[in-house]
Design brief:
2 domains, transmembrane
């Protein structure tokens, strides 16, 4: 009788978990095909630019062509070739990420419940249905699934590499194949992420830690040489694939545009000129105005190489585009506009790059000679504005709020645009919108269909808002678990050993890594004075780190409460 009861439970619990996963999948697919992506055809520096990059409409003479990385355009182009519309693309990326997260959780724990939690958590994160962060045809929509996939692949690489030599005498074929596939996929995805957004270099420290954790598998005592060699091969393989991906992307830019820069607004001499303008000490500098008019004049006065195009300076000091004084990052966009509207133009990016290279040398000489003075303030990297020590507390506060909002969107969550919004209407329908929608697989004659008769767009919006409300208390409980796990693990160390302790503190480290990115983003975006925009910048990249940390902390907490696998001292 007892045996029958145990067997029933052992079958019922997994079936319940699998059923819940299937229900959540159906729910998410229903919402995904009803809450349609919208295409901001009028955003020439953002959504429209990336779609034009994908379709080839952004020609060499178009000033913004090289103003943003082209990773998202590569994804859209691939989907177009495969005849995958943007609705299906969004769902496929999210479901693939959820599947990889579940697989990694199962491989690491050999338990179904962590895999189920990972699957449900990825599919139910409310911001994946946010109007800007989940439903806009823009690169930010893929940040969340791409980061989830990268974390999962890195976890699989570590787990498979440690287990491929589990018997210490010979390689385990299954884990070896898994490690090789994970290494290739992780390296390729990491390279693509570098082409997706300008600041993805922040991932490098985390990826180096992953390589160290993978390589430590070879340091175990008594391993056969073949196993140590296999571990080394896995590390080299992932790095090689990532490096090859980056070289390929640079070579593509070199062959297509004549410059090996993913983005000339943040890389190369033009970006260098922008950064030099923002460090010149001049009247009018504030936290919001990085390059006041006087600093711009001083930069052009020092850069004699630009004298042949005086209209660039005139445009920089004009009210065209972003007004005066230029706030924050607008100084870079204003320079791109100025070059576009000058005799220099963007038809020869290599020539533009060479000209500004000379201009930068002249500005550097002016700094060395003392005719230009650098502004005071702490500035750890060139792309961030200088700040004073007194501004740090507010920066820490905003970074902490951004970190919390990434995990719990709360009031920052904005549901899908209503059906009456202009982006879903047949008017206006300029050619740019028409061809862009066709390229994305959106029917211009019916931008907002109702695929499921029983689920209207308004009802789906209500469901997404309800999910956001449900998510908040659950996410809060997981944060409490994250805080409590190290304390409990240390307190019960004599009963359960060091593994829960290490797991809990590793979770804290991952969560802190996400906070560091929030810190950098809050530092950069402070001039915008918008918590919503900071959420837009950070949530898709930081939420996967927090979610991973919370799941690890939960596993550590449960392990700490167990005595069966204890290591009594």
């Amino acid at each position: 009788m007892t045996t029958r009861t145990i067997t029933s439970h052992s079958i019922l619990i997994p079936l319940t978990q699998l059923s819940a996963c299937l229900v959540v999948l159906g729910f998410r697919v229903a919402l995904g095909i009803t809450l349609r992506p919208w295409y901001a055809f009028d955003q020439g520096a953002d959504d429209r630019l990336l779609v034009d990059q994908a379709s080839g409409a952004a020609g060499l003479g178009y000033g913004y062509t090289l103003a943003k990385n082209q990773g998202y355009a590569m994804l859209l182009r691939t989907a177009h070739v495969l005849r995958i519309d943007v609705v299906t693309l969004n769902l496929l990326t999210l479901i693939t990420a959820a599947g990889l997260a579940a697989l990694a959780a199962w491989a690491a724990s050999r338990r179904l419940w962590p895999a189920s939690l990972a699957w449900i958590g990825v599919l139910c994160w409310p911001a994946s249905m946010d109007d800007w962060l989940g439903l806009r045809v823009y690169r930010n929509t893929v940040f969340f699934p791409a980061m989830i996939a990268l974390i999962a692949l890195c976890a699989l690489l570590i787990v498979c590499t440690w287990r491929l030599g589990s018997d210490k005498e010979r390689l385990h074929a299954g884990w070896t194949v898994g490690a090789a596939l994970s290494a290739i996929a992780a390296g390729g995805l990491a390279a693509w992420l570098q082409t997706l957004k300008e600041d993805m270099i922040w991932l490098i420290p985390g990826l180096l830690v992953v390589l160290m954790a993978t390589g430590l598998a070879a340091a175990r005592h008594g391993l056969a040489k073949s196993i140590r060699l296999a571990v080394a091969v896995m590390c080299i393989l992932s790095v090689s694939v990532g490096a090859l991906g980056m070289v390929t992307a640079k070579q593509y830019m070199q062959s297509r545009y004549g410059v090996a820069y993913l983005n000339m607004r943040t890389e190369g001499p033009v970006a260098g000129f922008i950064k030099r303008m923002t460090v010149i000490d001049a009247p009018g500098r504030t936290d919001d105005v990085w390059a006041p008019p006087q600093a711009i004049r001083q930069a052009f006065d020092a850069a004699d190489a630009l004298d042949q195009y005086p209209e660039i300076e005139r445009w920089m000091l004009s009210d065209h585009g972003y007004g005066q004084p230029l706030k924050g990052d607008f100084v870079g966009w204003q320079l791109f506009n100025a070059i576009s509207n000058s005799g220099l133009g963007w038809s020869n990016p290599a020539g533009v790059s060479d000209l500004f290279d000379h201009a930068n040398d002249q500005i550097d000489h002016a700094f060395e000679a003392g005719s230009l003075k650098r502004a005071a303030g702490f500035k750890p990297i060139p792309s961030l504005p200088a700040i004073d020590a007194g501004e740090v507390p507010d920066l820490v506060r905003r970074a902490s709020l951004d970190w919390l909002h990434a995990w719990m969107p709360g009031d920052l969550f904005t549901p899908s645009k209503p059906a009456t919004d202009g982006y879903f209407q047949l008017r206006p329908m300029p050619l740019g919108r028409f061809y862009g929608m066709e390229y994305l697989g959106i029917d211009p004659g019916n931008p907002l269909p109702q695929p499921l008769p029983w689920l209207t767009h308004d009802r789906a919006r209500d469901w997404s808002m309800a999910l956001n409300r449900i998510w908040t208390p659950v996410a809060l409980i997981m944060l409490i678990v994250l805080l409590a796990a190290p304390v409990v693990a240390v307190a019960r160390r004599r009963r359960t050993g060091w593994l829960p302790v290490m797991l809990a503190f590793a979770a804290w480290t991952i969560a802190a890594y996400g906070w560091a990115y929030c810190m950098a983003t809050a530092w950069f975006a402070g001039w915008l004075h918008s918590a919503r925009i900071e959420f837009f910048y950070t949530a898709g990249l930081v939420a996967p780190l927090i979610g991973t940390a919370c799941l690890m902390a939960l596993c550590a907490l449960i392990a700490s409460m167990s005595i069966r696998h204890g290591n009594r001292e």
